[in-house]
Amino acid sequence: MVKYRKYSNNLYVGLIISQNEEGGSMSIEIKVCMGSACHIKGAPKIAQAFDEELRARGLDEHVKLMGSFCRKMCIDGVNVEVNNVLYSHVTVDDVKRLVDIAMGVEV
Fold first, then answer.
1. Could you say which of 51, 64, 81, 88 would form a disulfide bridge with 12 (CB–CB 3.0 to 4.6 Å)?
2. Rounded to the nearest 5 degrees, what angle is found at the Cα of 57, between the Cα atoms of 5 and 61?
3. Please, where are the H alpha helices in 1-107?
4. Order of strands, edge to edge, in the sheet holding 3-8?
5. Cα–Cα distance list, 83 to 35, 36, 41 (Å)
6. pTM, 2 dp
7. How confident is the model at residue 55 (pLDDT cuts 50, 70, 90)?
8. Alpha-carbon distance 58 to 73, whole Å?
9. Residue 63 burial by CB count (10 A; 0-12/13-18/19+): exposed, middle or buried?
């Protein structure tokens, strides 16, 4: 189950409960939903923006950026998970802030 709260403007956040498979410390992960609805709403452009932002900050070797399967929340897309926190209605304009959040700069 995911519980949502409004983060800012049209960006919503929900907490996802999951554990690190290796049982060690959590790594920094950004997962962009690549399901068909999110894809149509611009997920590839958002993934590209994340890649460019991470490279510009020299973080591309430290942050795991990946696509994810559909989360069945298509109406809320584009959905992006940052360190087990789900953000919905994500746009390219949200990428810099979400990278800050991933790095612990912004809460």
1. 88
2. 95
3. 36-40, 43-56, 95-102
4. 3-8, 11-15, 85-88, 80-82, 28-33, 63-68
5. 19, 23, 22
6. 0.75
7. very high
8. 32
9. buried
